[in-house]
Structures are given as C-alpha cells and as structure tokens.
C-alpha cells in the first residue's frame, strides 16, 4: 500500500530479471558465464551451437581400460624409478598405499625400513638352503625335489611348483587379497609379486590376477570410481575438492560421482538417498491401503472405496453390504439413521469420539500420500519425458538432420543447433525432475521459500515447454513442409538457438539458487512473495494455481507482464527496455 | 576305503605326530577316516586348566593343506576364546592359515591359547566380560569347570 512496498516490488522484479539473464549474485564464477550466444550475437554466428549443455570446466577424466592400464603403468614406473626398486615391488607398494603416489613417497622417505617390513620386502634371503644340496624338501607337500623345481620368494623359503600353484590359486580364488600375497612360511611374510604369479600360476589365474590388479587401481584409489551404468567399463578419475560432482561418462550416462546415483543437481546426495528410499518404501503402499480401504466388517478382507457413495458391497462370495462410515450393516440404515445415503451415525460417533482416532489417522495418511503422489507423479513424468527426448534426439540425429541438410542445403555442421537444443531439453528435464524431490523436502512452514520455489519451478517448466515445443513441433514443420524457404529456416535457427540459450541460463541459475537453499529468500522473503504473485499479473492467485508447479505446463508467459524480444525471443519483464539476453532495444 | 589316495603330506604328518608327539598333546587318526583325528590336550601348568584333559576333534578338509584344518573342543571349557560349541577363535585357523603350517603347529597354538586367554578378541562375550571385569573370579570358574568336566575322562 505504501512506497516501501513498491520499492520491494521494484527490487524484486529486477532480481527476477537477473535470474533469467544469468547476472545475479549467485553467479560466482563469472569467468565462464560469457555465453557464446551473446558474444557472437552480432554476426549471428553458428558458434553458439558449439557449447555443450555441461559447460562447467571439467573436473574429471573418463578412463578406458587402456587409460587405466597406462596410468597404472606410469605410476609404477615413477615409483620404481624414484625409489630404485623393481617394478613388481613398486606395484606392491602402490597397492599397499591405495595407489596414492605421494603417500608412497612420504612413507618411504620417512622410514624405509618400516615400510619394507610392513609390505614384506626383504633385502636378502632369510632362509639359506645349503648351497650344495641337490634336493630340497617342500614345506607344504613334504616331498623332495631337485633344486631347479623349487621356487621361493625373496626370503628363500622353498616350495615346489605344484604347491606354489595351489597356494596362488587358492589365494586368487579368495579375491583381491591375492594382490598382497605373502610367502607361505608362517614366520616369514615376504611379499609375493606378480613376477612369481606369472612364472607359476595357470593362464586363467594369471588373467584373474591381472584383472584384480587393474580393478584395484580404480577401486582402492580414492579418486577413481567405475561408471555405475550397467555394462559400462569406463572409470572416472575425479579431482577431489573441486565442488560439482556431476559426471558424464563416455557411455553418455550422467551420474553423481559422490553417491554414484544418476546426476541429481540441484538436489544433494542425502536428499536423493531419502527420495529413492521413499519411492521404494513399502510404507507408501501401506498408507495407500490405509487411506483407500477398510476391512470388510464381516470377512475382514480389505475393501476399496472407489465411489462417492457410502453404500459398500463386499466382493463375492461375501457380498456383505455395509456402510463405509460406520461399518455397520447397510440394512440398519434408513430413516432411523437420518436418511438412506446420509448416515449421521458417523457424525454422532465422531462426536462421541468413537471413530475419531482411526479416522484421523486415515485422514493424515491420505494427506501425506496425496502430497507425496503429487511430487512423485511430476518427478516420474519428467523422467519419462527425458527418456522420450533422448529417443527423439537419436531419431533426429539418424534421420531428420540428413533430410533437413538436403532440403535447406545446409551442411550438417550448420545444424548442430538442433542437437544442442535437444541436449538442453534432456538436461532440463533431468533438473526439473529433481526439483520435485526438492519441493517434496522443502519444509511446509517456510512459506516464502515455498512460494518463491514454486514460482521459479513454474517458470522453468513453461520455459522448457516453450523450447521443447519449438524443437519438436516447429522443427517438424520444416521437415514436412515443402514450401519453407531457407530464409525461414534461418529465422528458425535463430529462434531455437536463442530459446536454448535462454532456457540454459534460466536452468543454470535455478540450479544455483536451489543449491544455495534459496538463501536470497531468507533476507527478504516477504517481497519475493509479493513479487512472484505480482509478476504473474492477474493470471493467477498467489500460491494457488501455481502451487502445483506442474499445473502450469504449456502456459507461456503472459503478454501483459512480459515482452518477447524480436531478435532472440527471450521473454523480458515489462519494465526492461533492452533485452536481457541480446541487449537489443525493445 | 576313503583313505586310499591320502596325500603324502597327511601320511607324513600323521606318522610324525605318532612317533614324536608334542609334549602334552596327543593326536591319532580315526580308524575309518584318516582325515579325522581324536585329539587330547593337557591343561598347561600355571593355567586354570592345569590338571585337565581336554578332548578335541580335528578334521582335514579336502583342500588341506591349502585350507586350514577344522578343530573343535569336545570337552566343556571356560575360556574367552572358545564358545559353548567348542569352536575356537584363533587366527591361524582362519585368515592367517598358511599351507606351511601343520596339525602339530595348530595344536601347539591351541595349547598356548589355554595358557594365555585373550579376552580382547573374544568368541564368547559373557566369558570375556567376566575375564575383564573380575579375572580372579573368572579364573576360579575356569578351574571349577576343569575339575567338573575335564578331570580324568
Ligand atoms: Zn610341494
Ligand atoms: Zn618366506
Ligand atoms: Zn559409463
Ligand atoms: Zn550424489
Ligand atoms: Zn466381506
Ligand atoms: Zn452408516
Ligand atoms: Zn533478445
């Protein structure tokens, strides 16, 4: 009502405006925020398409089997050279220190003798088989063999070939512990390295050992993990402490390096774990049963109520007719109970407190179930929409791009903007999906945050819808339509590329805002609420129709509160005189 | 007969166990199964088990010596590393087993365990707790059990 209120509004509209354009305070890393689209706007360059949806500087490396092998070899060579020890020993040492090169260095140079003792490197044999005997007795099978048929680790304890083979096979079959094999002599502890394995073990065991060694380099190493996608054999080497955990494997699977679940920004790993547990929880089914069914008073089978009417007839063979409200026999109902379909015994009983507790529990279960269902449905819908977009993208790349290229005489390299748009859609669907888990766990009592969140989510949804529609329907026109001109197609290019950039910016800011816990709202929550309802104009009542978020699907931006930039189609708030994206004047 | 192709090692070990038995230990193979041994261990002097004769069974699995022998007390014994089924908590019978160990070394280790109970690595929680909170009393119980169950069987 007063000037102070107006000021808040003005500020807030500005901040929302910033939210779109990617210039808010949430933008900590300005360095990579100079989007190609803006830079190259003047010459309408196609370079805008060279930007990938994941543009954060890469803080991880995808490793193939060969890469892993090579890195492992390099580390072994390095340790072997620096410490002047055989490669086999370097490998054992690295394995012992979980492939951490600097830990090996530190430990070795701090106390070489101790390290040697711990890992079982002997400087000279402890067991001196008398030089001139020709036969030795194996300490395992007790048979005597000529010297040359016996083997020993650095310690010199001799065992025959077949006992060694059995010993090694047993160890390899027991699992990766074979990488830390020791001399069979219980008092010894001398390390047995890959060199001995290669001389003695069967071909099959050698390969198993090799596999364990390679796996160890990934699994025992703190900064590497296998890609969790089924059947994928790539590993990911991650730069620890570099923040963002999102990783895209070469197999195209997108996952969180920290918890190895599917990528889930802006939601944190803990929330994802909760949400996944929630989705699989049997308790929800229990809630559903509790909310929608009651046991038949006669046969006790759960009966579902799926009509408004209170007159329930149990399924055959029971067929008992009863009242849903009071669970009494329907035959008792009638005038005496206040009318045929209006049982007032329920009200009476409720007043007497008879059904109160059970009914209240059922009501609560129903409410929490409805709430969960609301978020789950939207989460799942975006998930399937994302799957569909991935398929469409593939179809696009294998079929349509070729057609378009022929039709409008454009090299396929000029059509990258279409792929870009689809990749962006896939990415946005993923983000949008997780905002529903975010919304589910956003405390109900934080009204300002909830409203702001739902506003942002609603805008994200309609923005993405716009992009999705353009990439899907409008593009299809150009594929099908015979009369389209190259000129029209170039306009379409500008539009789709622009929408892609706008949507990308919006979602990136959305992700950051949610990751910051919507901290901007804390300081001036009240005005966010005002602004979000005002900026939607008369289209919706505050926090009502929008509270669903998903309900806004397909609704574009309102003409009375926004103007669409002629150049890039970006929807600018009414107060802005220049476009927030391309800086063209209105 | 199941013993027809008994590994040379088991035959040698058995011969040596019979010809030069370790002090306080006797082990003899069963007549119908050369992999099954009847074992007796005398309670070590200076231990709560002194004066007791403890019966055990020892079985050499097919994988022996790559796998450890299976050993179990048959006589009831009050010891923090032995449970009421007679199972023994001893590292060389599990992950520290080596094929270069033998029946003799296993039995000597069990004998040593009677002299030096280790309540920090218990198999029987109650007895271990008793041992840690009131060792004198626990030792008395062990002596009592020795008298009750392990005297001159
Ligand atoms: Zn041998
Ligand atoms: Zn040795
Ligand atoms: Zn992968
Ligand atoms: Zn995670
Ligand atoms: Zn019924
Ligand atoms: Zn009724
Ligand atoms: Zn513009």
From TrEMBL, chain A:
SUPFAM superfamilies: Ran binding protein zinc finger-like, RING/U-box. Residues 134-347, 138-182 form the RING-type domain. InterPro entries: ARIH1-like_UBL, E3_UB_ligase_RBR, IBR_dom, TRIAD_supradom, Znf_RanBP2, Znf_RanBP2_sf, Znf_RING, Znf_RING/FYVE/PHD. It holds the Pfam family IBR_1. Its cofactor is Zn(2+). Keywords: Metal-binding, Repeat, Transferase, Ubl conjugation pathway, Zinc, Zinc-finger. GO terms for molecular function: ubiquitin protein ligase activity; zinc ion binding. Residues 546-556 have a biased composition (Gly residues). GO terms for biological process: protein ubiquitination. Its EC number is 2.3.2.31. Residues 1-17 have a biased composition (Acidic residues). Residues 1-56, 522-556 are annotated as: Disordered. Belongs to the RBR family. Ariadne subfamily. Might act as an E3 ubiquitin-protein ligase, or as part of E3 complex, which accepts ubiquitin from specific E2 ubiquitin-conjugating enzymes and then transfers it to substrates. This is RBR-type E3 ubiquitin transferase.
UniProtKB/TrEMBL annotation, chain B:
The active site is at 89 (glycyl thioester intermediate). Gene3D superfamilies: Ubiquitin Conjugating Enzyme. Residues 5-151 form the UBC core domain. Belongs to the ubiquitin-conjugating enzyme family. Interacts with yeast and human Mms2, with the RING domain of RGLG2 and with UEV1A, UEV1B, UEV1C and UEV1D. Catalyzes the synthesis of non-canonical poly-ubiquitin chains that are linked through 'Lys-63'. This type of poly-ubiquitination does not lead to protein degradation by the proteasome. Mediates transcriptional activation of target genes. Required for postreplication repair of UV-damaged DNA and for adapting root developmental programs to suboptimal availability of iron. This is E2 ubiquitin-conjugating enzyme. It comes from Trapa natans. The lineage of its organism: Eukaryota, Viridiplantae, Streptophyta, Embryophyta, Tracheophyta.
